[in-house]
Amino acid sequence: MVIVPKKQGDIRICVDLSELNKNIQRETYPMASVDYTLTEFKKAKIFSIIDANSGFWQIMLHPESSAFTTFINLFGRFKCKRLPFGISSAPEVFQKRIRECLKGLNGVVGLMDEFVVHGETEKEHDERRYQVLQRLQDSGWTLNEEKCQFRKKSIKFLGHIISADGICPDHTKTEAIKKMLQPTNITELKRFLGMVNFFKKIVPNLADIAEPLHTMLKADTTCLGVLIKKRHLKELKKVYAILQC
Fold this sequence. Notes:
Strand content: 15-25%
Low-confidence stretches: none
Number of strands: 11
Distance between the termini: 41 Å
Structural class: alpha+beta
Number of helices: 9
Number of domains: 2
Radius of gyration: 22 Å
Helix content: 25-40%
Mean pLDDT: 83
Oligomer: single chain
């Protein structure tokens, strides 16, 4: 068991459920990609962010399933009564429950425990938000008041800034890319390209700019210091420097 501090000052208890995960038959449920989710915001001008309070914990486990989550610490044996972090099937189970709850409602999109209600006008947005909140209340879901935001003209969501003007990268993400050191091995290069490709849908000609670096992934070497040309990295970082919202 590991105790991890949260940003808000609370703690998160993490249990190693790796052996249990080997014997779990995961539920097949489609998880929407970030790219697909962002396409849902066409014509949206008003936004509200709704965050489910301790998302997984709002789902009760069947008593028989609960027994399989038993863990031991200095104080004895304990088992989870609610869906814990660390179970491999948890994301699909949670996503299915929350989507079933909001099924049929317009103007609501999201991934996992955070989702956005949006509208082209304040009236449309407010009507949709009321329907979403009413449905959540009727189904027994609770929300995290500190993380919820209502009637905003601009929001940060899934690493992007979304507003009536469009979608662009969150500046904190692009700053992290610009501050990265030049990769010196395959692992570091993959990490760099992974961060860059996160915004591939909204960066013009990114594939052409990054192509020389992708070619280097095939190189049979553990040291890329000689192969990587700084000008390619500078070109990539320059792209994000001009995409600040």
